[in-house]
């Protein structure tokens, strides 16, 4: 039995024979039930499309105000980076850093890594630094917490609505769509299919 026909479960280390799957099929470990690999013929292409969509939404979400608040004739609005600046100016340095990393930096790195890995592959090419960017992608994914940021924004809006008129901005809806696009890009990205495609081009 060749080593190419074997797969090791990353949860329980059981050694299994690799079997072909029909489109959409999932191979699971016979011992622990963990997903081993999937067969998604168009998964990488869908991941690229959602990554490019996420990149456009990310720009919109950070270029326009998230919400506008009107109270006693005074109107104020801010962007995500504007919120980080306000927190920094108020000497809430750790909170400002946390918001910047989880809601801006890590999602940006995740989107950029997806595009860097998948776009050349779609064009039939490989690029330098694939292992490094692949590790960066998996490092950034757990730290991208746009959904937590959105939950905090919604709670804040609900509390401010009792004191002032709060109007959601285009950035708020962009963040909602961005959250969905990143999740869809991650769901379509299969590491096994990716490395198989890379090896075929080398």
TrEMBL record:
On the tree of life, the source organism's domain of life is Bacteria
One Pfam family of this chain: PqiA
Taking the record's annotation, the residue ranges forming a coiled coil are: none
Q: Keyword DNA-binding on this protein? A: no
Q: Which residues cross the membrane?
A: 48-67, 93-119, 140-164, 170-189
Provide this UniProt record's keywords sorted from A to Z: Membrane, Transmembrane, Transmembrane helix
Task: Report what the protein is called.
Answer: Paraquat-inducible protein A
Q: Which organism is it from?
A: Candidatus Propionivibrio aalborgensis
């Amino acid at each position: 039995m060749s080593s190419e026909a074997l797969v090791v479960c990353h949860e329980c280390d059981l050694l299994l024979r690799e079997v072909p799957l029909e489109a959409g099929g999932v191979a699971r470990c016979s011992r622990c039930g963990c997903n081993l690999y999937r067969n998604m013929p168009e998964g990488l292409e869908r991941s690229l499309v959602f990554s490019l969509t996420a990149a456009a939404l990310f720009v919109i979400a950070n270029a326009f105000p998230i919400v506008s608040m009107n109270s006693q004739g005074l109107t104020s609005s801010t962007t995500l980076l504007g919120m980080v600046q306000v927190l920094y100016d108020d000497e809430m340095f750790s909170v400002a850093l946390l918001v910047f990393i989880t809601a801006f930096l890590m999602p940006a790195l995740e989107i950029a890594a997806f595009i860097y890995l998948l776009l050349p592959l779609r064009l039939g090419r490989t690029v330098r630094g694939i292992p490094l960017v692949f590790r960066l992608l998996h490092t950034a994914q757990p730290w991208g917490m746009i959904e937590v940021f959105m939950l905090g924004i919604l709670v804040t809006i609900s509390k401010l609505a009792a004191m002032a008129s709060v109007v959601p901005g285009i950035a708020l809806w962009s963040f909602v769509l961005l959250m969905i696009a990143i999740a869809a890009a991650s769901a379509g990205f299969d590491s096994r299919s990716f490395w198989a495609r890379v090896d075929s081009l080398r």
